[in-house]
Amino acid sequence: MSGAKARGGARASAEHVMAPAVVFAIPVLKLAWTLGGGDAARDALSAMGPANWVDVVIGMFLAEPVLAAVLAAVACHLTYAYRAAHGGAARHRERALIATAAAASIVPLAAGVVVGAFNGLWWGVASGALGYLLRLGVVAEYRTGARSADTGHRTGRPATSFRPRAAEAVRVAALLLALVVLPALAVSAALNGRSWTSVLSCDVNTGTGPQRARVVELDRSAPGVVGWDLAAREVVSGTNCAVEADDVIRPPWWRS
């Protein structure tokens, strides 16, 4: 049983570390690949400001519906599993099942609204439903005794009925989403060569006189923008900007 607890704790730790690791590392990878190297990523991040680090993640979230849905579902599961493992699971046994299921639906519903607002109704429905299903899996683990409400660890109890087997299947699905699918989608989105923000055509002056240039917007600065000049490969100030429909900066990594 102690071995099962250790393995369960290690898997839970890996799940909780993966999502922050993706949020921390993926913006740098996105900047470096899209703009053409580490030096460009550093210059762009300096122009954006470190406080805007998460803007890259938000831009990817808005542009990649599958990534948005999976990230929302994983976040719904991780937050619920963390609270359950730190004392919240006791309420699963104290409250009626209907009340517990209703309380578990609040965050997935909110996540579905956010994803749906930016990526479309059905993406919102899919992310909310998936997040809710993963939360119900946590509820089932504690109610069937597969996980202890006192320690948060798996009990090692064999799955001898339909409900424990279903809870185990949901737990495995949650692990796969958090440890395999989410990082794979995030890396794919980082290396697809598309901009995470608006691509503009602006008047810029890099020392050779005013000219039109294709610019990746990094920050708004009246009366124009601060952006990355794709041809000159440097941070510039642009004015009289117009949005371009094409947000592809370079070919994806797998075609380069």
Largest sheet: 4 strands, antiparallel, barrel
Q: What strand order characterises the main sheet?
A: 1-2-3-4
Tally of individual helices: 9
Radius of gyration: 22 Å
Q: Look at the structure and give the mean pLDDT.
A: 81
Quaternary organization: single chain
- Counted beta strands: 4
**Percent range for β-strand residues:** 5-15%
**Helix share bin:** 55-70%
- Molecular shape: elongated
**Residue runs with pLDDT of under 50 for 5 or more positions:** 1-6
The sequence of SSEs as H and E is: HHHHHHHHHEEEE
Keywords: Membrane, Transmembrane, Transmembrane helix
Give your account of this protein's structure:
With 256 residues, the protein is α+β, with helices and mostly antiparallel strands. It has nine helices and four strands. The protein has helices at residues 2-35, 38-48, 53-63, 65-88, 90-94, 97-104, 106-119, 121-143, 162-190, and strands at residues 199-205, 210-221, 224-229, 234-243. It has a four-stranded antiparallel barrel. β3 and β4 form a beta hairpin. α4 packs parallel to α8, α4 crosses α9 and α7 packs antiparallel against α8 (121-143). The longest helix is centred in the first third of the chain and has 34 residues, at 2-35. The chain is elongated. The termini are far apart. The model is unreliable at 1-6 (pLDDT under 50). The chain crosses the membrane at residues 12-33, 53-75, 96-115, 121-138, 172-191. Keywords: Membrane, Transmembrane, Transmembrane helix.
